[in-house]
Write a structure and sequence with these properties.
Largest sheet: 8 strands, antiparallel
Low-confidence stretches: 103-108
Number of domains: 4
Strand order of the largest sheet: 15-16-17-18-25-22-21-20
CATH topology of the largest domain: Beta-galactosidase, Chain A, domain 5
Keywords: Lyase
Structural class: alpha+beta
Distance between the termini: 68 Å
Mean pLDDT: 95
Helix content: 25-40%
CATH class of the largest domain: Mainly Beta
Number of helices: 18
Subcellular location: Cell envelope
GO molecular function: lyase activity
Number of strands: 28
Main location: other
Organism: Paenibacillus xylanivorans
C-alpha cells in the first residue's frame, strides 16, 4: 500500500550510536544468523513519544510493488512476522509525527497507511543480505499474538485441559512427573504455616545487606507458598490446600505496594512478590469472589506497572540494554504478571508485547548467536533461570517458541565449555558460588536446553552436575531463587527424557566470538584426565558483573584448579568484591608498572576497557589463541601501546604462553599467577603441588632479563575481617626489569600428583627471532617470538 504522506515538516534526528546503545542494524557488514532479520536503530526521541514506520524493499528506490511497510512501531526495534526470501534488501524508517505510541499497535497498519500521515524525513537507507538456509524465526504480529489464546484461568504453565490431564496422570500414579516429591517438600510445608509478615523498613531506610537478603528470602518463600499451594489445590481439588493458598494470597495482596516490597525499595523483593501474586491470581481466579479478585488484581497491576515503568521508561533497555536487573525483570515479572492480567487489564497487553518484542529482537544483550554470556556462568544461570521459565510460559500459552532462535539453540554450549561439571574456580565474572562445585541450577538449566535441542551432551552435563553437587538445594544461592521440585515437575511434564551421551568426540576448542571467551579441553568426559584452559578477552570490558580480566586465563587439570580464580564471594560491593575480585591483580594476568585494567565504577571507562580475541583454532592436534587487551589498560596505563597474549596448547599436554607488551616509555611488567596451594619458587621456575594435580611453571624467556619472583598469601586491599578464618590462597608475581618492550614466554606443564613430569626445551636466537623448541613424548614443537630492539 502506498504511504500517503504529507510533506515532512521536521527532520529526523539520527544520533550516532555509542558503546551503550543499540546500533543501526542490519547493514552491509551484518552477518545474519536467523530469518527474518532483526531491525534496530537509535531512537529519534528521548521519551518514545511517537511511533515509527519502517520500510524494507528489494531496491533502494522503494517502489511500492516491491516494498514491505510496517507501522505503527512503538519502539526502535522490530522483528517481522514473515520470512524473507534470500537476497539483497534495503531498509529505512521514519517517525509518524501524528501518531502517539499509546495510540495503538500494528493492528492499525492499514489505517495508518490509508490516511495522510505527517511524517518526519526518512532515515538513511541501509542495505543487507539474507543468505539461504538460515533458521526461520518470525514472530506473530501484535495483532495476531493472542487471537487464539484462552481467556480463562489458569494460563500460567497449564490451561484447563492441561490441568485436567495432569490431575488424571497423578490419579493413576502419585509419583507422576515427580508430583509426590513436589507435594512432600514444596507444598505441605506451607499448608499449615502462618503467612510471612510484611517486611519492615531498613533502619533509617538505609539498605543493610543482611536485612536486604532476609527480605528477599522472605518474599521468595511467599512465592513458593502461593504458587505451590495454588497449583496443588487446583490439581487435587483439595479444599484444605486451596484455603491455605487463598489465605497467603490475600495476606500478601494487602501489603503496601509503595512500601518495603516496592520496586524502588528492594527490586529483588518486588520481583518475587509480583510473581507470587501472578501465580495466585491466575490459579485461584475461579476460587476467589469478585471482591477478592479485584483486591488481588489491583495489587498485581500496580506492582507490574512499577516494573514496566522502570524497564520501559526509566531504564529504557531498548535504548541502553545493559541493565541486568531490568532485563531479568522482563521474564521474572512482566511475562507471568501480564499473562495473568491479559484480557482484563488493557495495559497488560502492551507490556507483554514489549517483553515479547524484546526477546524476539534484542535478547540477549550479554551475548549473541554463539550462545555466550559476557557476565559469566553464574549470571548466565540467573538470567537463564527466569528467561527459560518465561519462554515455556509463552510457548505453552501463545504458541510463541523463542527456543528456536540461534542463541537458545547454542547457549547450552556456554556452561558445557566454560563451566564443566568437574571444574572449580575455573571461570570468570561475579560468582556467588565461587569455590563450590558447579551450581545445581546450572545443571537443571542445561537439561532444559537438552529438552529443547535434543543435545545428549547437555543431558550428560546435567547428570554429572547432579552427582557432584547434591544437598545444596537449601543454600542461599539456590533456595533464595528457585525450587528444584517445582522445576522438575514442570520439566518432566513438558519435555521428553533425553538420553545422555558422554562428550567423547566434542571439539577440543570452542570460541564464543560473541563474548570473547575461548575454552580449550582435553578429555572433558573423564574428570581424572580432563585438562581445561579458559581465556577471556571481551568487548564488554569490565561492565556490570564482568571484571578487569581481559587476557586472563584459568587452568584446571586432573580434577583440581591450578591457575585459579581466587578469593571469596562475601557480598556484592564488599571490599573483597571491589578491591580484589574485580581487579586485575586477582587474575592470572599482567600488571604494567603495578597497574591493572580499569575496574572502578565509571561505566564509560568500564565499557572502553575491552579486549579482543584475534584468532583461535585447533589444528593438527594443537590449540592456539591470540588475544589483545591494549584498550583495557588505556585509562590506567596511558603509555601502553600494545598488550597481546598468545597461548599454545600443545599435544593436549602442556601450555606455552607468549606475552607481548610494548610501551611508549620504559616500565616494568608483573606476570601474575594465583593458586590454592603454596608455590615452590626456584630461579626462573615455580612448582605447585595440590591434592590431585600439580604444575611446573618455567619462565623460558624474558626479553628484559631474568624475572624477580615473589609470593604472598594476602589479598591486597581487602579488609582482613572479611576473610578471617578462611583458607589462604597464594599469589605469584614475576616482575621484569624496566623496558619499553617486553616478550615473556612461560611454559606450564600440568601433571597428576602421582606422575610428576617436565617438558624439556631449548632456545635458538641466532637471527632476528627467538626460536623455542619443546619436546614431549618424543615430539618436538617450535614456537617463534620476535625480538625487541
Amino acid at each position: 500500500m502506498e504511504v500517503k504522506r504529507k510533506l515532512a515538516k521536521r527532520s529526523l534526528y539520527q544520533p550516532i550510536s555509542g558503546p551503550f546503545h543499540v546500533d543501526y542494524a542490519p547493514d552491509e557488514h551484518t552477518v545474519l544468523a536467523e530469518n527474518p532479520p532483526r531491525f534496530t536503530w537509535m531512537a529519534a526521541q528521548q521519551e518514545d513519544q511517537n511511533a515509527y514506520i519502517l520500510q524494507v524493499s528489494v531496491g533502494p528506490s522503494f517502489q511500492e510493488e516491491e516494498t514491505m511497510t510496517f507501522a505503527p512501531l512503538p519502539y526502535n526495534f522490530f522483528t517481522p512476522d514473515r520470512v524473507f526470501e534470500p537476497g539483497d534488501y534495503y531498509w529505512r524508517y521514519a517517525l509518524l509525527v501524528d501518531h502517539r505510541v499509546q495510540q495503538g499497535s500494528e493492528a492499525e497498519v492499514d489505517a495508518v497507511l490509508g490516511k495522510q500521515q505527517e511524517m518526519s524525513a526518512w532515515s538513511e537507507v541501509r542495505q543487507f543480505t539474507v543468505p539461504a538456509g538460515l533458521p526461520e524465526t518470525p514472530i506473530p504480529s501484535r495483532a495476531q499474538r493472542y487471537v487464539s489464546a484462552d481467556t480463562s484461568h489458569p494460563r500460567l504453565w497449564l490451561g484447563e485441559s492441561g490441568l485436567q490431564a495432569l490431575a488424571d496422570g497423578i490419579a493413576s500414579d502419585p509419583s507422576y512427573c515427580g508430583w509426590d516429591v513436589f507435594m512432600a517438600n514444596s507444598v505441605e510445608p506451607w499448608a499449615n504455616r502462618e503467612p510471612i509478615s510484611e517486611p519492615l523498613p531498613y533502619p533509617d531506610n538505609k539498605r543493610v545487606a543482611p536485612l536486604w537478603r532476609r527480605m528477599y528470602i522472605d518474599c521468595q518463600e511467599v512465592l513458593y507458598a502461593i504458587r505451590h499451594l495454588s497449583i496443588a489445590g487446583r490439581v487435587l481439588h483439595d479444599e484444605r490446600l486451596l484455603e491455605a493458598a487463598k489465605t497467603w494470597l490475600l495476606h500478601v495482596a494487602a501489603w503496601d505496594t509503595e512500601g518495603t516490597t516496592s520496586r524502588d525499595y528492594n527490586d529483588e523483593a518486588a520481583f518475587r512478590v509480583a510473581a507470587a501474586l501472578a501465580w495466585g491470581y491466575d490459579w485461584l481466579h475461579d476460587e476467589l469472589n469478585s471482591e477478592e479478585q479485584d483486591m488481588v488484581r489491583r495489587s498485581l497491576l500496580r506492582r507490574t506497572e512499577q516494573v514496566a515503568q522502570h524497564v520501559m521508561v526509566r531504564s529504557k533497555i531498548h535504548h541502553v540494554p545493559y541493565d541486568s536487573h531490568a532485563v531479568r525483570s522482563l521474564s521474572s515479572v512482566l511475562v507471568p504478571c501480564c499473562m495473568a492480567l491479559l484480557h482484563e487489564e488493557p495495559k497488560a497487553a502492551a507490556w507483554l508485547d514489549y517483553a515479547i518484542d524484546y526477546y524476539a529482537c534484542l535478547y540477549s544483550p550479554w551475548g549473541g548467536s554463539d550462545g555466550g554470556w559476557a557476565e559469566g556462568p553464574m549470571y548466565w544461570t540467573t538470567g537463564m533461570a527466569y528467561v527459560t521459565e518465561a519462554m515455556n510460559l509463552l510457548r505453552n500459552y501463545a504458541g510463541i517458541d523463542f527456543f528456536r532462535r540461534p542463541f537458545f539453540q547454542r547457549t547450552g554450549d556456554f556452561p558445557l565449555y566454560v563451566y564443566p561439571p568437574d571444574a572449580r574456580r575455573a571461570s570468570f565474572g561475579d560468582q556467588s558460588t565461587l569455590g563450590d562445585p558447579v551450581n545445581l541450577k546450572t545443571g537443571y538449566l542445561v537439561r532444559q536446553l537438552a529438552g529443547v535441542t535434543g543435545n545428549r551432551w547437555y543431558q550428560w552435563y546435567f547428570e554429572r552436575v547432579r552427582q557432584s553437587d547434591p544437598g545444596t538445594e537449601g543454600a542461599f544461592y539456590n533456595y533464595g531463587w528457585w525450587d528444584f521440585n517445582f522445576d522438575d515437575l514442570v520439566y518432566r511434564h513438558d519435555y521428553p527424557q533425553v538420553e545422555e551421551e558422554s562428550p567423547v568426540d566434542i571439539a577440543p576448542l570452542k570460541w564464543f566470538r560473541d563474548v570473547g571467551w575461548v575454552a580449550m579441553h582435553h578429555r572433558m568426559d573423564d574428570p581424572d584426565e580432563h585438562m581445561m584452559l579458559l581465556l577471556k578477552s571481551s568487548r564488554y570490558g569490565s561492565i556490570s558483573h564482568s571484571h578487569a580480566d581481559q587476557n586472563s586465563f584459568t587452568l584446571h587439570a586432573f580434577g583440581e584448579p591450578l591457575a585459579a580464580d581466587t578469593g571469596y564471594y562475601i557480598a556484592h560491593g564488599s571490599s573483597f568484591h571491589r578491591e580484589w575480585r574485580r581487579q586485575t591483580r586477582s587474575k592470572n594476568n599482567l600488571l604494567i608498572g603495578g597497574a591493572g585494567q580499569y575496574a572502578e565504577n565509571n561505566k564509560v571507562l568500564n565499557m572502553a576497557a575491552t579486549g579482543q580475541i584475534e584468532e583461535a583454532y585447533w589444528r593438527d592436534g594443537d590449540g592456539y589463541v591470540r588475544a589483545v587487551a591494549t584498550d583495557a589498560y588505556a585509562s590506567t596505563v596511558p603509555h601502553v601501546k600494545r598488550v597481546v597474549r598468545e597461548i599454545h596448547f600443545l599435544q593436549s599436554s602442556y601450555f606455552v604462553i607468549v606475552d607481548h607488551i610494548d610501551l611508549e616509555k620504559p616500565d616494568s611488567v608483573q606476570w601474575l599467577f594465583h593458586a590454592l596451594h603454596p608455590l615452590q619458587l626456584k630461579g626462573q621456575s615455580f612448582r605447585l603441588n595440590g591434592n590431585k594435580a600439580g604444575l611446573e611453571g618455567t619462565f623460558v624467556y624474558a626479553s628484559s632479563g631474568e624475572l624477580s619472583l615473589s609470593q604472598t598469601d594476602q589479598f591486597a586491599g581487602v579488609d582482613p575481617a572479611e576473610y578471617e578464618g578462611l583458607e589462604k590462597h597464594y599469589h605469584l608475581s614475576a616482575e621484569t626489569r624496566s623496558a619499553s618492550s617486553h616478550r615473556i614466554v612461560t611454559l606450564l606443564v600440568p601433571y597428576k600428583i602421582e606422575e610428576p613430569k617436565y617438558v624439556p626445551y631449548f632456545i635458538d636466537d641466532q637471527d632476528h627471532g627467538i626460536h623455542l623448541y619443546f619436546t614431549d613424548n618424543g615430539v618436538t614443537k617450535k614456537i617463534e617470538v620476535s625480538k625487541t630492539y
